[in-house]
Amino acid sequence: MTIGQQWIEVCGVDEIEEEDVIRFDHDDLTFAIYRTDTGDFYASDGYCTHEKFHLSNGLVMGKMIECPKHNGRFDIPTGAAKRAPVCVDLKTYPVKIEQDKVYIYI
């Protein structure tokens, strides 16, 4: 493990609806935390790679997030850019659930 990397508590599992996304800020970093239509949780960098608009204002559709600025889309589990104008993938982070809390590894 690299010094400084750790599991950080984000929220309770009931604080994110299915097919929704929230913003989570930690120190000088910002993240998007997702809950897909199947109830799975994921995390990525918070800003769209196209024009740095925060994805927490976006639309979750199944396992896709659509940026609210120019409607580019990313695959939530992998961070892969899926629809123009986005062409650079999002960085994703491991997520775990313990005692009804959502944690990300950063």
TrEMBL record:
Keywords associated with the record: 2Fe-2S, Iron, Iron-sulfur, Metal-binding
Reported cofactor(s): [2Fe-2S] cluster
GO molecular function: 2 iron, 2 sulfur cluster binding; metal ion binding; monooxygenase activity; oxidoreductase activity, acting on paired donors, with incorporation or reduction of molecular oxygen
Any Pfam family: Rieske
Signal peptide stretch: none
CDD domains referenced in this protein's UniProt entry, alphabetically: Rieske_RO_ferredoxin
Family: Belongs to the bacterial ring-hydroxylating dioxygenase ferredoxin component family.
Protein name: Rieske family ferredoxin
